[in-house]
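@here heads up, posting the sequence + SMILES for the flavin-adenine dinucleotide run so it's all in one place. Ping me if the SMILES looks off, I pulled it from an old spreadsheet.
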Amino acid sequence: MLYGIPGTIGGAIRMNAGAYGDEFKDIVVSSVYLDQNLTLHEIKNPDHKFNYRYSRFIKNKNDIIISTTLQLHNENKEKIKSRMDQNKKAREEKQPIEFPSAGSTFKRGKEFITAQLIDGSGLKGYSIGDAYVSQKHAGFIINKGKATAKDVLMLIDTIKRKVYDKFNVNIELEIEVIGED
Ligand SMILES: Cc1cc2nc3c(=O)[nH]c(=O)nc-3n(C[C@H](O)[C@H](O)[C@H](O)COP(=O)(O)OP(=O)(O)OC[C@H]3O[C@@H](n4cnc5c(N)ncnc54)[C@H](O)[C@@H]3O)c2cc1C
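bot reply: prediction finished. Complex structure tokens:
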């Protein structure tokens, strides 16, 4: 499940990262975090308030995850290897991992597949500066050279507007914008 998701454990717990039907919420037993008064707390799985790409750490921005205990599932070595290979192959075939990106730009919808709406709005290959809507997977914004944060943010606005105009659907960001131009 974790194979192919770039990042650290802290970031992955904060956003409840997941892929191919598994999420961090399924393997976290407990975490220790430091609050802004430098007090340590240990919380169990339910106290993380995990949801789709959400945990309590999104709301409590000043808390820093120090450590986590994970409970992995026991499985046959060959079976694990074959699942890892399958996931790797699927990523290579379906995602533009040959270009820099922040991963999937928008959250999956409950009643729609966001990448299909972006594709259906004629946006595959659309670009602002060097920021492109990937031809391979419309859910990814890729950098084909010297894209700036401003290019990416303008492209995000354009995608949201065009999808809304065509499908009357508001799509939500999965990535987190940390205010810069
Ligand atoms: C090619 C590609 C494919 C991807 N595929 C997937 C996928 O399949 N599934 C998926 O879920 N994601 C996917 N992602 C997104 C990626 O997993 C996230 O960017 C990553 O999990 C964030 O972790 P990070 O360590 O990079 O955190 P950062 O980007 O450094 O931080 C993310 C947030 O977490 C906070 N944070 C980081 N560490 C801590 C800590 N210790 N305590 C408290 N807060 C902390 C930061 O302050 C920040 O707000 C993909 C990304 C790429 C580029």
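MO: Residues 31 and 158 are 39 Å apart (CA to CA).
MO: One more: Strands lie at 18-19, 22-23, 28-34, 40-44, 64-70, 101-104, 127-128, 131-133, 140-143.
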